[in-house]
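Researcher: Here's a chain I'd like modeled. Treat it as a single chain, no partners, no ligands.
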Amino acid sequence: MPLTAELEAAIGATAAARLRIAIARWSEAWSLPDLPEAVVVDLNRRLRTRVGRYCPDGHRIEVGPRFLSLRSRKAEVLAHELAHAAARRLHPRARKPHGPEWKTLVRATGFEPMVRLRVPATPKTVAGSDETARYRHRCPVCQMTRWARKPVTAWRCRSCAAAGLPGVLVINRMGVRQ
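Model: Modeled as a single isolated chain. Structure tokens:
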């Protein structure tokens, strides 16, 4: 499966090599050894609400900024999307995108089939403003991130505070985000 040069540059050569190996292994497990050459994985920076998506007409998988922000679940997302391509080839009459055929393929990769993956939102335009978020507020414990035009020292990480931790966020000026 050719990862585009832009995507490889964004995730790094080591991560790209690991993903290529995993994709080849999954394709063999699904008895579709030609699948990696039939589908292209591309970066689409405009994806804001999805981590990734399979585009059946173009035989393409698109991943967005949320995919790039993942630390350890990139393979799981790619397995999810590639299973859509495999299900379409193995079961062309199947109607449900997350039906039993797809679930079987995802389980064969070693992951549990999930329709939604909880990933922090990517920075976006601040409501009521022409500017975009400039300050990243990040929890050093769980990596939860919030964005704002101004630093907000009163914000705390709810989940860490609920666990008895201070929940203090680290604030970084990131420049104008677009």
